[in-house]
């Protein structure tokens, strides 16, 4: 029969005839045959299966083998024995090599036929050994897939025993690492992917049946991808294994990898790069999850060098994967994390900028819903990056044009995304006993390191930094090549905005801005420091402008280089978007106002007036009786010169003064005068001053006793409004303080009135809390609580010529050289009274500097602040205040009339806005309620310096933000500044990494000692100690009162 069959299949008869005869041969298998005949048929069918030249002969071989083996099972069991199988697997068959998948096909078919025979157990044992041997020989994908299919159908052939099973899994992992696709056509790639899927499926089955093999298999996987051997590149097919790893193991595995001291940086870098390459594998699931988890794990243990290298090396590859829909979701997730966490430098983002526009246009053009959804996500990512690195408008213009029609995330959402994604915000995987450097707090704000009793500077700088319009002006100045104090302030502001550090050490700025009479490492008055700082900045700018205008006349074109130098200096304090011939300094623009002092002789009724510039108003506390009747005041002035600080209430008309070019405050002493609040008295108007003599100042007076007593804050707690009204209330000069009238040529009783003529953009109010005690020769602190209104309305006198026009400049020339003479002698009599129309100018509270302690020589300063722009229409204050001012002149009180209207409208809007508490290195979220209740909760913590922002009817700072180039609202930084910040951020990450590695090495051999965050340094001599109070938002006294 075998001879007939062999001749038939090789004959030239038609195929239908051959099939008829083959069917009869198969049917004859039921007839009894001798053992030799059966063996001949089995041998023939085996040869046809393995060596048949065409598919017909191979099919005939399989049909005959199956039929005769079923009816002659004993004979087939004897034929299909251990020797045959071993020979096939090790030597092949004839010209067919042992590594041909057809061998495994034949073995699998034979196993099915003898599955019920006892000898199959011997074959299972043989195949367990042979399977391990085969995977150790790194079979090609087709053979390995065929082997795995056989082992999947017959799990009895899998290596048994923990060692053999573990070895098989590890070797199978290494076999996958050697897989390479043999073609590039789609059909070939699909076949390759299916083969890899077959192999990874077997591993999944083993891991599920024997969980003990999973972790060693993954260790082998990591060993493969972390290899630094350049002669071997593991296959991307390893990505197929990731989807079979339980996600619950992420935490354990990542912690094990990132904290293992035996894993070198080079190996970890290789492993991470290869995992990112896995994003190209089309069917792999959860690859992006593991990649992001490893990135976060490395950030948690401060291995920033690896993260920087990998990001710069692979960011473009990840971006390119966005072009392929099949792998786009995972690629976008990894790209988002890599970009958002790489916050110390724009380098990674700028590698992608040239390719963004093309990708956006591609997404727009294909019209697929999935592409539209991904485009929205990509746009959000791009906005976040341009917000964080806003100093490159020339790079971002094409991108902004391409995405202008797509939704833009809110600034709050962008900040939240950036804060959560930064490397320094990742939770640590180190043991809890290990302290580590921390990045910025959850607020996204940067603290200032206390350099030794420098809290007075830190609190002021943070308040100025949070003055949004002022900060933007400073950052927009072109100061390259200038070593001025303004340049140092710009440098400090830039670092506060962009550094990755939790707290920045302002050593250079402190040394440059510290007043010469301030003793280093001793507590000072923050108000005095603020005045000195603003005065220095103002004078410096005036000097540079004067030099730039004087040089051309002194050296008429002496040389081209000299001319260039002059031109450069002329532009030093010119903002990048230059607007023309503004002569005012930046300090004048932001903080400068004008105050008019009028003195009316009560004898001859002649009036003298003088206008002076101010940058802050110093508000004295009213005597208790003054709250009931504050129509007029008679002030006994007393001055004491101290070595530490200056606190003033107003202009002293009877004493000579020495002022700088700009009268920084209404204080007129050289440096250090104080007001004896104990000597402040209030008198009623004399009978001579009847209703016929009432002047314009009555429009600014506080209401009568009845109205004042109705105010809740006046029952027990005075408000800033009360102190401001008291400051502006008329004052009677009599007794020893009589006024010398030039018309009467004698000392006469007089009425002094102060009126604000021009309001500043930022109103600085200093509460005079330190009064001089002549008995003890110390300055005592007034601990009275003061209510802080969120909205303050400042009465400003408008002349007829300026009605309807809010002055934005110092339009009246001030003779600064005259301010050093006796004020009374310089006041010039005025003619007829100018018609005026007082106006209430609305201000919103921007920041509060708090002093904690009981004396000016000790204690602690911290500040509350929030971001407020110059935008007014949203609050609706401008229109309301003007209407109210015109409606009722008789009720124009500072903050009196429209509080009920405005505060009701703003409660929901303003109260919910974020406030920040700046306490040296620590920055935390807080609320306006905390600001209001600080003194009631901590009696030694009192508001000292207040900054109010004027609510203009148009944005106070209009630059390129209109066209979208100022993505985050702040101007682009100069390249020199951005480079310095990038360099320092990288240094900071290296410091963190070094610290983490040192701690990890010491953790095993030393006991852990934990020092809580917030300790700036040890208590220096003469520092705060217990006198600093206990406030500041609830921080511990020990941690908070270290200066």
TrEMBL record:
What InterPro entries does this protein's entry cite? ARM-type_fold (IPR016024), Papain-like_cys_pep_sf (IPR038765), Peptidase_C19 (IPR050164), Peptidase_C19_UCH (IPR001394), USP (IPR028889), USP38 (IPR033840), Usp38-like_N (IPR049407), USP_CS (IPR018200)
Q: For the region Disordered, give the residue spans.
A: 1012-1031
Where the record annotates domain USP, the positions are 446-951
GO terms (BP aspect): antiviral innate immune response; G1/S transition of mitotic cell cycle; negative regulation of innate immune response; negative regulation of proteasomal ubiquitin-dependent protein catabolic process; proteasome-mediated ubiquitin-dependent protein catabolic process; protein K33-linked deubiquitination; protein K48-linked ubiquitination
Gene Ontology terms, MF aspect: cysteine-type deubiquitinase activity
Gene Ontology CC terms = cytosol; nucleus
- Residues in coiled coil: none
Query: PROSITE patterns from the entry?
Result: USP_1 (PS00972), USP_2 (PS00973), USP_3 (PS50235)
Q: Which PANTHER family match?
A: UBIQUITIN CARBOXYL-TERMINAL HYDROLASE, UBIQUITIN CARBOXYL-TERMINAL HYDROLASE 38
What name has this protein been given in UniProt? Ubiquitin specific peptidase 38
**Record organism:** Chelonoidis abingdonii (Abingdon island giant tortoise)
